[in-house]
Design a protein that fits this description.
alpha/beta; TIM Barrel; globular; Lyase, Ornithine Decarboxylase, Chain A, domain 1
């Protein structure tokens, strides 16, 4: 951990920039909306911690009804367990026996499950579980169009499920059924069609697994862009949305059911930055650059201003182009909305949580850099 850029009670104008800030009112409305949807739909909510990497946020989600957390990395799981989370699904494949031993050690005090798409992974996880005398939950990942991890839906999923069921120390739970490519498809109807196709593949796999005498207790998946489809499907049993608490430019670019920009959730995560140079007319330089946000999904947007745009970034500088006549005095603070919240979060040590113009809380990003 490095320098903390604010103290509780500070005015927003006193925050040392660049800083990662959370608008608590918007953040809490986002959490409540997803929790209320899950409750009404009768589906479990297991938010994805790869978005926030923060035990404090995980516990808030659990207090609001979430059954636990998803994560992608063993290091994330360790940080969450250390922070008090007691039910974690690693929605990823793990092969390295050292990592699996770390997960097995966590399973002494925490419910731990993970994904599989190969026999070798099963053998290694079974070995680790037996060494630590624990049981690990096991889900077969099926490829729903991501072309990343996952077996072909149907018979291949059933064969792997049967192999898992016979492996000491593992308990077959069901399917990891996440259609990640659908999350950012622009048209609402096209996202719906993608999840309908995914549902067909899920049913094919459930039926094949049933023929092997096994039952899928858990069908987990869904994301911020498609949660309404999986949530109301009566097929998925668990949602693993992550970005809904913060939102970002990538999600803002898709459409809602009304054809308008996606407005299911509010932007609550920002990079607070300060104008440090105005040497050239029509241009302002701010102190947040590539070490404060990522660009793989595009440049961040200047929040609540239509007359200025972030047009370039280098390591420690951002370049803002100003419309004619617009002036940003030196020392002005502005908010940038990240284009991709997950990797942006991983560049910071703390969330500076603000409400009514003042810092209300400081949350450590406890799993920052925990990517092993």
């Amino acid at each position: 951990m490095n320098f903390v850029p604010a103290r509780i009670g500070d005015a927003v104008t006193e925050i040392d920039t660049p800083a990662l800030i959370v608008d608590l009112d918007a953040f809490e409305r986002n959490m409540k909306k997803m929790a209320a949807f899950a409750d009404l739909a009768g589906i479990r909510l297991r938010p994805h911690a790869k978005t926030h990497r923060c035990a404090a946020i995980a516990l808030k989600q659990i207090q609001m009804g979430a059954v636990g957390q998803c994560c992608q990395k063993v290091g994330e799981a360790e940080a969450l367990v250390q922070g008090g989370v007691r039910d974690i699904f690693v929605s990823n494949e793990v092969l390295d026996i050292r990592k699996l031993r770390r997960l097995a050690a966590l399973a002494k005090s925490t419910t731990i499950s993970l994904c599989f798409d190969a026999l070798e992974q099963v053998d290694a996880a079974s070995k680790a579980a037996q060494e630590f005398d624990v049981e690990l939950g096991a889900l077969v990942e099926i490829d729903l169009g991501m072309r990343r991890c996952g077996v072909v839906p149907g018979d291949a999923a059933a064969a792997l499920a049967k192999y898992i069921e016979a492996a000491p120390g593992l308990k077959f739970l069901g399917l990891q059924a996440y259609q990640g490519k659908a999350q950012h498809v622009r048209e609402y109807a096209d996202r719906e069609k993608a999840i309908e196709a995914a549902a067909t593949a899920v049913r094919l796999s459930i039926d094949a697994i049933k023929r092997e005498g096994l039952r899928c207790q858990v069908i987990t998946g869904g994301g911020t862009g498609t949660y309404m489809f999986e949530g109301l499907s009566r097929l998925w049993t668990e949602l693993q949305c992550g970005s809904y608490i913060f939102m970002d430019g990538e999600y803002s670019a898709i459409e809602g059911s009304d054809g308008e920009p996606y407005a299911e959730f509010e932007q609550s995560l920002f990079i607070l930055t300060t104008v440090m140079s105005t040497a050239v007319s029509g241009r302002a330089i701010v102190d947040a650059g590539l070490k404060s946000y990522t660009l793989e999904k595009g440049l961040p947007a200047v929040h609540s201003h239509n007359d200025m745009r972030l047009v370039a970034a280098s390591d420690e500088h951002g370049v803002i182009a100003l419309d004619g006549g617009v002036v940003l005095p030196l020392g002005t603070t502005i908010k940038l909305a990240p284009s991709h919240c997950d990797p942006t979060v991983n560049l910071h040590d703390f969330y500076i949580c603000v409400r009514n113009g003042r810092v209300e809380a400081l949350w450590p990003i406890s799993a920052r850099g925990a990517s092993s």
